[in-house]
Every structure is written in C-alpha cells, then in structure tokens.
Design goal:
Mean pLDDT: 84
Order of helices and strands: HEEHHHH
Shape: elongated
Largest sheet: 2 strands, antiparallel
Number of helices: 5
Distance between the termini: 40 Å
Length: 132
C-alpha cells in the first residue's frame, strides 16, 4: 500500500480523459500504468506526459483495441438492455422511461449514461474533429 500523493504521471488520465486499467502497480520506484484507448489518443497522452515533465518509458503497445474497453461496466450494461429492448430500433421498442423502470433508476440517469457511452462510440468510430 502506498501513502501520500500519487506521482504526477498518474494524473495524465485527467488530461486525456481515459482512466488507467486496474491494477496500477508501483514497484522499485516506478509506476506501471496501462491504458486502453484508441490510437488517435496516443499523441495527446505523450504531450500530456511531456507537459507534466514526466519521465516515461513505453513497454508495449498492442492493437487489440475494442471500443467496449473504453466504456464502463454500467455503460455496457445499460447499452445492452437498451439494445435488447429495442431502444435503438426504428420505431423504438421502448422509451427512456421504460429503461429506467427496468433498471430501477431515474430517467435522467439512463439518459446521461447512454449519452456518454454513445459519445465514446461515435468519437471512436469517426474521430473527434476538435483534436485535429
């Protein structure tokens, strides 16, 4: 167990808006952090590390990225229910209210979770033009 403030490099996740996978490991004075993100975010991560004056070494990069890896378990759960219930069908098979009742939460919670998940999926598919 570590005590005190995390090293500056840990906060790069706030800059790139991706959270490290768990566990984050501290060993022999080094912090080992793994991120799952689209390749288009790598340059932003390098820039953030440099701006924070973090010494870093990339141990590996793999190409097995899946957009679902960037969604939270709750986002995946709600999207799955929405798809099963026909929320994305035309015409819709259910409403936000129906989903909220089934999941036992407020309609605004469902709306917010779906909006964030949809945004991740869409930006992953076509990129974020604000980053160019």
């Amino acid at each position: 167990m570590l005590e005190g403030q995390p090293p500056n490099g840990y906060f790069v996740s706030e800059d790139i808006e991706y959270h490290p996978t768990t566990p984050v490991v501290a060993r022999d004075g080094y912090l080992f952090i793994e991120f799952v993100m689209p390749e288009s975010k790598l340059a932003t991560m390098w820039e953030s590390l440099d701006e924070r004056n973090v010494k870093y070494e990339v141990l590996s990069i793999t190409e097995d990225y899946n957009v679902l890896d960037s969604l939270t378990a709750r986002q995946q759960e709600i999207l799955t229910v929405a798809i099963k219930r026909g929320y994305y069908d035309n015409p819709r098979g259910c409403s936000l209210t129906d989903l909220a009742e089934e999941l036992g939460v407020n309609k605004s919670v469902i709306s917010g979770v779906l909006h964030r998940a949809e945004g991740e999926i869409i930006k992953d598919a076509i990129g974020d033009p604000r980053e160019h």
